[in-house]
Amino acid sequence: MAVELKGLTKRSENYSQWYNELVVKADLAEQSAVRGCMVIKPYGYAIWEKMQHELDRMFKETGHVNAYFPLLIPKSYFTREAEHVEGFAKECAVVTHYRLKNAEDGSGVIVDPEARLEEEYIIRPTSETIIWSTYKNWIKSYRDLPILCNQWANVMRWEMRTRLFLRTAEFLWQEGHTAHATSEEAEEEAKTMLGVYGDFAENYMAVPVVRGVKSANERFAGALNTYTIEGLMQDGKALQCGTSHFLGQNFAKAFDVQFLDKNNKLDYVWATSWGVSTRLMGALIMTHSDDNGLVLPPKLAPIQVVIVPIYKNEEMLKQIDARVDSIVKNLRAMGISVKYDNADNRRPGFKFADYELKGVPVRLVLGGRDLENGTIEVMRRDTLEKETLALDGIEQKVKDMLDDIQANIYRKALALRESETFKVDTWEQFKEQIEKGGFILAHWDGTTETEERIKEETKATIRCIPLEADEESLQPGKCVYSGKPSTRRVLFARAY
Amino acid sequence: MAVELKGLTKRSENYSQWYNELVVKADLAEQSAVRGCMVIKPYGYAIWEKMQHELDRMFKETGHVNAYFPLLIPKSYFTREAEHVEGFAKECAVVTHYRLKNAEDGSGVIVDPEARLEEEYIIRPTSETIIWSTYKNWIKSYRDLPILCNQWANVMRWEMRTRLFLRTAEFLWQEGHTAHATSEEAEEEAKTMLGVYGDFAENYMAVPVVRGVKSANERFAGALNTYTIEGLMQDGKALQCGTSHFLGQNFAKAFDVQFLDKNNKLDYVWATSWGVSTRLMGALIMTHSDDNGLVLPPKLAPIQVVIVPIYKNEEMLKQIDARVDSIVKNLRAMGISVKYDNADNRRPGFKFADYELKGVPVRLVLGGRDLENGTIEVMRRDTLEKETLALDGIEQKVKDMLDDIQANIYRKALALRESETFKVDTWEQFKEQIEKGGFILAHWDGTTETEERIKEETKATIRCIPLEADEESLQPGKCVYSGKPSTRRVLFARAY
């Protein structure tokens, strides 16, 4: 797994290529032999595990429990919810047989034609249908509600064009599926989970996001309302980072899930679903990283601090080892993950470049001269600034620096988003700005027709109707495309 | 999700039915609409999560990292390792198409015949082939070794007869796949992981296991050596709880994975793989539980302590609530998971039966009289013993009791296994004993032929050649079936 350090394309040259190379060179993921499916390598998976850990904690703190539902879904289940089948069931992996056999001509192994399934199964692209068919057996009365389940799982969508983490045929995600006695409670749940996602993105990933509601056209297939968090990447394109859906009674009706309410009256159950996926890895990478490689928020970095010794001989290395030993112990006792890299098969310069590429937030370098002077060299990955500090008490300074890096990369990303968000009032301006990238706040007449025309002409989509907006954005105006009346500005961008 | 408390079949009446009912009544899992696939319900999944958490920690402490590999495997990959395809590729889910479409007659959604895959994919029954095709790109020299990867994943095997947790078409597991420069190092790794599994089974699940080596006939398809841990269930049948395989160079050869050793000589890489699955849930349930329901080891119980109030009026409940509040806080501060169930829609008797069914290790009951007397009633689930203790300092007593329960259920299971392990020296005895159940230590001539005859005539298999045995068992003798020379006793049983 030797790291290839040479020649990471610069963002300014080709942002897309920079991203593709970085994912591979930083050992995050790679293409597999299976069309559109990725291998998530140990370093990339360690970041995903940290994300999972925090999200799972946040889900549990908001009253959710985990469960597991089948990977396969009977084909007929998809046809029960009309919009859902249109949105999901078409491009998917279909299981038709359950056995292989040796070819009679000895040429290898073939699908046994006798082992054809009566009804085909679909590998889940999302689990609403299989889960609501299960909830039917779990729910009889209002006493069985709410059900607040989450599932960590793999899903599959047969995407034609794939990119590591951003769009892959198989990806990992969590999907929450909740059942409620009232419309209000379900809508509230959908909003709560949007809040959890927003907090996670901003406070752990250090990715500022706009919280909003999708237009009817961009809703999840089968939802009455889709809430979303939208990030802005460094190239001026938007990335949808997570969605939370108020599903109304659509799935309860499709699977006939009714309950007796407190007045002993039968009603259909109200639903939400919500999910984030390994796509978040793409958001993390594209928001912070630079031409030297990854920049990781300390809260999600598998290695927060790396220590590299510089020595002329074994004797000096032993002295450095001894001094580093206590630093490592102290940092670990403070809950900081630290790696001491005194391997002798790679030179310091190579190590420096490698850990920069991998986005380790803080690097400490200790040499013989430092030992004599009682100093140590500290570099922070976000600014690449180096300084020489006193060895004594270095642990607390490192801890403070990690906090500062976490805050700084968020501020930096937020400043970029603010400088790249534009209010636009004419169609000419709109077309001009969309070529340059960024978020555009513009008036829209509220029709799907206009939305689709804008998309056809500029590839821009309505990312969301923001939940928070300044006074001016909430005033009526005229649609930037049609000139018809608009109640407020909405957020446009080209998106991943 | 109301609990059905009535009528759990007794173990003595029908052990198999007792198990099936218990899994469902205790809210652990249920059958899904997909043939042979289960839904793991929140309470069952919470136990599995605790298992995962401890195992994952143990894997990391022994130097392993997690990664993720594709769900689908190209059909041709299976044919590369001859034994492997015989063992695995036959009964499996085959993906042949990647699209559905609306039927032209409007009858629904059908598989689009135009979207047939050039090469079919198999849903992974195990991942050696896809992983070794990946390792080929990761390994060039001895410096890239060892690779110590683990994956938490779902896998699928098209089983004809399924039982919840014990044998399901889809199940959850972890699979470790390691690559090494020498045969010795790989063999050592396989043994290390057997040790981890054994420790986990005994110290967390409280399930005593026999560590051993499989006979050639019972080896994993493609392995040179399979290590196993074998448990004995209360009905006298064995359950294989986990296996660790020394794969030699078989997969490296099948996928042409070579490396330059320290002398610059090319050689094939040495491999291991090892796994445990949701089958462990079956072992956990069957080892400890009784006619009242689950008995869970405190270390894996989602709820370790439940507190139930008994009150005549709201006023009294308020007083109890206030006193319980500090007990809950103190227990939580000690790292103990506790639930205070003061819900007023279920009567105490119902709650008692429910928490017994669910195997909560310790139950505290606090009534008005107790408050006056400064006492509390404590019941331990393993023995069902009740006693009244002083309220003051109850927290430490509960903690000690949890430790005692953990130790006691292990001792009890170990005593049962010891009393149900028999040395047998004649074929008549063997046939008689196998009908009664238990582990049989008997001499075997070492041939697959004899092993298969014994299986045909008695349904008993060689569970393993134990790694630890008393002196007498290691002496030569005569095969219990053929009378031919035997080097030592091996372990037979009927198995799940």
Topology:
The structure is a homodimer of 496-residue chains.
Chain A: H1 15-25, E1 29-31, E2 38-40, H2 42-61, E3 65-66, E4 72-74, H3 75-78, H4 82-88, E5 91-102, E6 109-111, E7 116-123, H5 128-138, E8 147-156, E9 170-180, H6 183-203, E10 210-213, E11 225-232, E12 238-248, H7 250-254, E13 258-260, E14 266-268, E15 270-277, H8 279-288, E16 305-310, H9 314-333, E17 338-340, H10 348-357, E18 362-367, H11 368-373, E19 375-380, E20 386-390, H12 394-419, E21 421-423, H13 427-436, E22 439-443, H14 448-458, E23 461-466, E24 477-478, E25 485-486, E26 489-493
Parallel strand pairs in A: 3-8, 16-17, 16-18, 21-22
Antiparallel strand pairs in A: 1-2, 4-7, 5-6, 5-7, 8-9, 9-15, 10-11, 10-23, 11-12, 12-15, 13-14, 18-19, 19-20, 22-26, 23-26, 24-25
Helix pairs in contact in A: 2-6
Note down, in words, how this protein is organized.
2 copies of one chain form a homodimer. By secondary structure, the first copy, chain A, is an alpha+beta fold. In chain A, 35% of the residues lie in helices and 28% in strands. The first copy, chain A, is built from 14 helices and 26 strands. The first copy, chain A, has helices at residues 15-25, 42-61, 75-78, 82-88, 128-138, 183-203, 250-254, 279-288, 314-333, 348-357, 368-373, 394-419, 427-436, 448-458; strands at 29-31, 38-40, 65-66, 72-74, 91-102, 109-111, 116-123, 147-156, 170-180, 210-213, 225-232, 238-248, 258-260, 266-268, 270-277, 305-310, 338-340, 362-367, 375-380, 386-390, 421-423, 439-443, 461-466, 477-478, 485-486, 489-493. In chain A, helix 2 crosses helix 6 (183-203). Chain A is globular and about 80 Å long. The interface between A and B is large, with 68 and 68 residues.
